[in-house]
Amino acid sequence: MEWLDRMNDAVDYIELNLADKISYDKLAQIACCSTYHFQRMFSFITGVPLSEYIRRRRLTVAAFELQTSKIKVIDVAVKYGYESSEAFSRAFKNLHGIMPMSARDIGVSLKAFPKMTFSISIKGVSEMNYRIEVKEPFEVFGLELKTTVVNGKCYKDIPEFWSACGQDGRGEALLEAAGKKPGELLDAGVTYAHNSNGDMSYMLGCIKRNQVVSPEYTTLTIPKQTWAIFQTEWKSECDDEKLHEVWKRIYSEWFPVASYEHADCDFDMEMYFGNSQTGYSAEIWIPVAHK
């Protein structure tokens, strides 16, 4: 399948460049998606951040070289992107539990992380509820966070941003600006402005209807787009575990067999519904186009 071929080609690129600079943009180009989308897809499918996979593969190959040759530790360190033998030794010990020079000792135990390959596994035990809809342009306004996908930082920053906005009153003020009542949810979480260096933006937002929006808020215009919309029921006001599970299944189960691929659109969204009386639910909106 094309999707599997592209993902395996991306892994091949990593393997061929373990001793060189690995371009995330090139990986995304091979996989025919944005840099942000590729990193998110890789992490959800494999359970390992892209940067961590590359680090493990480099340290695995470095251990093999130390075992089978007389190469100096500093030369291995430089070869695999470390600025000093000290930095390399720390990373090596964190992974393997020993210092690099000990890798040559007879009977020493090392860890090996093999090259990944992507293949289809037959699952389908539980259904995925989704629909395809074309939405006309609309606007979202809200609170903006600048972050980056580098080293998975955005996955730490975004939950902390939610928590901070809930504690310092900014979330409550946004609800009021949107004309919502206490106990209701914000409408959306939006990722956008993905740059080739990994920088991106995230918004906690509400749909703009007839409100006059204060300049303190950022306003986004979401273009007319075909969306794959996945539904999920929440057990609580914010069921991150359930959302994460659906995101993972979208990339690992739905995209590989769907007749759609991620569209060239800069927005991915989560939409939130309900209140403390009616219960809560969410939808994941992914821009798609026919293959």
Notable characteristics:
291 residues; alpha+beta; Arc Repressor Mutant, subunit A; Multidrug-efflux Transporter 1 Regulator Bmrr, Chain A; 2 domains; 9 strands; elongated
Question: What's the quick description here?
Answer:
The protein has 291 residues and is α+β, with helices and mostly antiparallel strands.
Largest sheet: 9 strands, antiparallel
Helix content: 25-40%
Total domain count: 2
According to CATH, the homologous superfamily of the largest domain is: Regulatory factor, effector binding domain
Average of the residue pLDDT scores: 87
Distance between the termini: 12 Å
What is the CATH C level class of the largest domain, in words?
Answer: Alpha Beta
Secondary-structure element pattern, one letter each? HHHHHHEEHHEEEEHEEE
The tally of helices reads 9
Shape verdict: elongated
Could you please say which CATH topology of the largest domain applies here? Multidrug-efflux Transporter 1 Regulator Bmrr, Chain A
Give the name of the CATH architecture of the largest domain: Alpha-Beta Barrel
Radius of gyration (CA) equals 22 Å
Amount of beta strand: 15-25%
Low-confidence stretches: none
Structural class by secondary-structure content: alpha+beta
Total strands: 9
